[in-house]
Amino acid sequence: MASSGADKLLGKVALVSGGSRGIGRAIASAYVREGARVFICGRNEDDVQRAIVEIHQGGGEIDGCAGDIGLLADVQRIVQTAVYRFGTIDVLVNNASILGPRVAIIDYPFAAWEEVIRINLSGIFLMIHEVLPIMLAKRSGSIINVTSGVGRRGKARWGAYAVSKAGLEALTQVLADEVKDAGVRVNAVNPAATKTVMRAEAYPAEDPATLPTPEQIVPIFLYLASDDSAAVNGQSLDAQDWIGRND
Fold first, then answer.
1. Which of 108, 161, 203, 223 is catalytic?
2. The model scores a pTM over 0.90
3. Domains in the chain: how many in total?
4. Where are the alpha helices (DSSP H) in the chain?
5. What secondary structure letter does DSSP report for 152?
6. 161 belongs to the catalytic site
7. Is residue 2 part of a domain?
């Protein structure tokens, strides 16, 4: 039976990468409202601290630190700090990513290619690699990977971003199959077109007023973090199918 009302995440600890703005921040804020203790990370210290202060104004427990998820030492520090602060990690939301150039493959700079793959795919591997042993030890946990429609079907001039998201869809499937009997679930979520800075960078001529806000696509992330989704594993879901839902 689906839970209702506030506190559906009471007692849970969530780590949200890219949690200082946009979709990650909306997820972190919603998790705090629902009773979770939340740790966020992002590359800019000022942005992280600003998000912590503003989210905390509504009550609840939130902390975080700056770091680059594409660097092993930073990932280890992020995870260790989160565990030191809150004792464990029950939910990992792999939201952090960068767009990279919107150019054809033939014109794509190799350095930019390496940077996008390093953060969007290898960085998420590193986050999972550090958090998964915590979840396996207690036979409980939810890993939520934020993907993209271009990771399901590639489109021209989406380059390394599309390739990284396709790889993340595959990583989700591989890991979900590996942990299916270990009490841990792994799912992917495609936010689709959402009113974010990254979307504006990708489509500068688009009217942002026509797009749902990050706050509107939060319901699927609440569901996957809650015990209501305990049997859901290896799925690739669409956030906008859940707009307006409370279960």
1. 161
2. yes
3. 1
4. 22-33, 45-56, 72-86, 110-117, 123-138, 159-178, 197-202, 219-225
5. T
6. yes
7. no
